[in-house]
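Case study.
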Amino acid sequence: MSTPTVNASNMANQAKLIIIGNGMVGHHLVEQLVDGGALEHYQVTVFGEERHRAYDRVHLSEYFSGRDAESLALCEPDYYATSGVTLRTGEAVIEIDRDAQDVVTDQGRYPYDKLVLATGSYPFVPPIPGNDRDGCLVYRTLDDLDDIRAAAENATNGVVVGGGLLGLEAANALRGLNLDTAVVEFASRLMPMQVDNEGGELLREKIESLGVQVLTERATQRIEDGDASHHL
Ligand SMILES: Cc1cc2nc3c(=O)[nH]c(=O)nc-3n(C[C@H](O)[C@H](O)[C@H](O)COP(=O)(O)OP(=O)(O)OC[C@H]3O[C@@H](n4cnc5c(N)ncnc54)[C@H](O)[C@@H]3O)c2cc1C
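After joint prediction, the assembly is written out as follows.
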């Protein structure tokens, strides 16, 4: 792996490259730039909305089975600094001013010559009444999992809305946190995008054997206090 030599004289000739997003893709791009020697030509700054540097989101659920944030990280803590790349975590870009060629965060304005958006995606939260209540959480980031763990401490029941791949990962995580867990799925089978009816039945058996209640063909209409579980 090459480490670029950045000195004051070549900095003047370097174009400013800003990467928005320090997820798996944004990090991979940085590695390619570093390894390919592009830092001779570019002064690179990366903005990450999350407070953690890039981590292996694909293996996020392992955070609930013993792995910590450091072991999921995609690089050593000093990788960016020693590579000559500026990493600004916990700083979301809130505006791109294309006329001025600036990105804007709540901490300032940063000029760019080239801009890459590697912002990934956000979980879709369906517009169900009650979806903004305490204890209604999404499953995408390390901070989300911290919130779920904290909410589970005082809870007995957990419900996952959505019986796709991530929903089932989340349900397994809730079981691991000792909650009575149910999955609510609109379609007639779990993982409707990936499996057919027969596969869906086998999957239901497997998921139920983990102690998760499977409710298919149910459209979630409201989220509210029930008899067995109450607003935290
Ligand atoms: C639990 C779980 C399991 C998964 N399992 C698999 C799997 O088995 N196989 C598979 O292929 N995929 C899986 N995925 C999907 C995979 O994680 C994503 O496809 C991958 O993370 C996409 O990488 P990305 O860098 O494009 O986006 P992300 O990893 O989402 O990273 C984007 C980053 O940009 C940041 N960002 C967004 N907007 C801004 C802004 N305005 N300013 C600054 N930063 C910003 C975000 O906070 C985020 O950190 C899984 C996802 C989850 C949540």
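Observations recorded in class. Residues 124-232 form a domain with the FAD/NAD(P)-binding domain fold (CATH 3.50.50.60). Strands lie at 15-20, 42-48, 86-89, 93-97, 102-105, 108-111, 114-117, 157-161, 180-184, 212-215. We will return to this complex in the next lecture.
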